[in-house]
């Protein structure tokens, strides 16, 4: 297969995307032809020379970069399909499957997915609606709550609320009165804990809200749970699953438990500090709880029409033992210390085999979609 890997992007997770894609590129089976396309911080796409991939595979310390050679600027042709959607320097880039190894805004929020749909090429991961809905933490909570799944109590504040001081004050007071301190404040649609912080009092809450609104126009205030953090990997297609094709069948892996050594599992603990957290796979839970989390992860995945892959994150209240859904990541990290591939590997699905499963599912989903009528 001709595999196109996208990396970089316009989000705050640009650098993490580069690290993730470096790991993915190394682990793609040699039976595939891989083309690398970088996206700079301004959103321009560049085809990378084949020598970049060769060097990456030869040198274990090498990391992908953004080589912004104007002659390699990529053009995208709507309806171009696998054999003509991408063109650089006057040459077609074959794309049997595209893997957008892009985290956060303009990567896993439905924008790139919509572009790939218009180009009519198969791609790894969730579709447009699922990507957009799960990128927004409030809409994810609404969908899960409607399905009867357990979520952490929250209050959502928008930029419009900030612009009306009476509404803003009422919402903040409601959050404090109903949930009490400490509270967690998060941008609704940022990733990797960007803009997230914990508030122990009203002054810290005010500062946390100011910081979060730097990242998004909608901000979430959540009850702080004295929590153990547990994650579960899921693959498959919740909408077009076919038992005769293993790549489409919903499978959960793990779960694994994160024991942070930072205040919480923040950006540094996730990506910069190899000793930022202990990862325990399987999580230190009894069989009943392990099975509950595996099944709930698949339900949460299905409720949002997820496909391809996702990492579903949970909190377990240390005081009450109650299990809550936290969030879902549709393009989870693929770095050397990332939980998603580690949990899959713990169930016997190694990195390279995992990638092949994702490529197969992408083609199956594309084929199922192509059979649908779009006009009379």
Supply the key terms.
about 375 residues; alpha+beta; five-stranded antiparallel sheet; four-stranded mixed sheet; 12 helices; about 25% strand
What's the short story on this structure?
With 376 residues, this protein is α+β, with helices and mostly antiparallel strands. 35% of the residues lie in helices and 24% in strands.
Provide a descriptive summary of the structure in words:
The structure is a single chain. This protein has 376 residues and is α+β, with helices and mostly antiparallel strands. Helix content is 35%, strand content 24%. It contains 12 helices and 16 strands. It has helices at 14-27, 50-58, 111-119, 128-135, 137-146, 159-162, 165-179, 202-212, 267-272, 287-303, 339-346, 351-370, and strands at residues 2-8, 33-39, 45-47, 74-76, 86-88, 91-93, 97-100, 154-158, 183-187, 197-199, 218-223, 227-237, 251-260, 277-280, 307-317, 323-329. It has a 5-stranded antiparallel sheet. α1 (14-27) links the parallel β1 and β2 (33-39). The longest helix is centred in the last third of the chain and has 20 residues, at 351-370. The radius of gyration is 21 Å and the shape is globular. The mean pLDDT is 93.
Strand order of the largest sheet: 14-13-12-15-16
Number of helices: 12
Mean pLDDT: 93
Provide the succession of SSEs: EHEEHEEEEHHHEHHEEHEEEHEHEEHH
Q: Unreliable runs, pLDDT <50, ≥5 residues?
A: none
N-end to C-end Cα span: 33 Å
Task: Please state roughly what percent of the residues sit in beta strands, choosing from under 5%, 5-15%, 15-25%, 25-35%, 35-45% or over 45%.
Answer: 15-25%
Please outline the major beta sheet. 5 strands, antiparallel
Tell me the structural class. Answer: alpha+beta
Radius of gyration: 21 Å
Overall number of strands: 16
- Binned, the helix content reads 25-40%
Global geometry: globular
